[in-house]
Every structure is written in C-alpha cells, then in structure tokens.
Amino acid sequence: LLLEHEAEQPQFSDVPQSKQGSVPLEAGMLPPLHMEQLFSAPAAQYLLPIVEEAPSGEPPDPKKCSPREYLEFYIFPVLLPGLAALLHEAEKEKCFEGKRTKFIPSDFLTEWLYNKNPKRKDESFTELFSIPFVKDWLKDHPRPPIPLSLLLSEEEASILIQSFWRGYRVRCDSEIQELRQWQKKLREERHITEVVKKFWTKQEAK
C-alpha cells in the first residue's frame, strides 16, 4: 500500500522535466497557494469544496483498496464538509478578527464528525462533552477553566470595567474614606471577627 501511495503522489511543478520522469501532473489539480496569497484576502474567499457523497461507482473494499481510493470514498465525503462547516463557524465566532477567542476548532470538528458519522445517522445529536471517548479523556486530562476575558462579550466587559471604576472613584471620596476607617476601628474594638467566628461555631455544633 505504501508503494502504491507513493506512486500516486503528483510531482512538483518546479522540478525539471528530466527529473520528473514520465508522470504528468494530474488534470484538475489546484495550483500551489502561497502564504502571502492566503492572508491577503478575507477568509470567506477560501471555501472548501462541499463533498456530500462519495464518488459514483461501487465502493472499493476498504481493506484492499489503495490509499487514494480510501480517501476519496471513505474520508473526504465526511471530512471536507466538516472543514467547511468549521470555517463558517470560525467566521461566526469572529476568529479572524482577533488573536484570542474561546472557539476551539478541534472541539467543533470532533463534535461535528461524531454526529455526522454515517453509522449514527438515525441517532440524536450528542454534545461534545457527552461523547463517550471525550468524557473518558477528560477524566484523566481535565481542562483548566476558560478565562473570563474570553467568555464575556465586549459589552459585558465594558459594563464590569465601568462599574469597578465608578466604585473606585466613590471609595476615593474623603467622606467615604472616613466612614471606612470608622467601620474598621469599630470591628477591631468590638472584636467583630471573633464574635462572628463564635457564632458560626455554635451553629455548626447544633
């Protein structure tokens, strides 16, 4: 299979003809895409082809077919639509507009491929963290919590920042400072902390 796979690989166009041998470039092969071209236009222009069905004809035996046939009949019909859906979802999550985002592409693709598996076409939708092998993996590899800065929208974050700033400005007022000092002195003189501690000790004893 490895020899068949290597024999089917197209030759690069920048190799001289004398070194390419007699193997021509395959018809319909896309030209190479350079990095400067990839980042010079909006992401929406680079859409993957949507392959909803396998190539026509009798499906080959997956245990005996060539690597190329296996990809065309069993992998690409599911994987390519998943990658296209991933790009659309990333655009919705504004992943192309900032450096940080809560969107995790591998999570989305895992959930999408699991639910689009032809063997599960009659089953209900399953969320990522309810997938059996995902649950087993997370038991041994728990994830750290997502930072609050990624969970909040710009509007929610601005409200929190403004609220904190207004509170800070109020606490800087001389009358508020005097009140806070009085409260602190009162707590120390009456041993408020000890009183509260004894109170909860009695409550727990009941």
Automatic annotation (TrEMBL):
Biased composition (Polar residues): 10-21
Residue span of region Disordered: 1-21
Pfam families, A to Z: IQ
Cited InterPro entries: IQ_motif_EF-hand-BS, IQCK
PANTHER family: IQ DOMAIN-CONTAINING PROTEIN K (PTHR34927:SF1)
Protein name, entry field: IQCK protein
Natural source organism: Melanocharis versteri
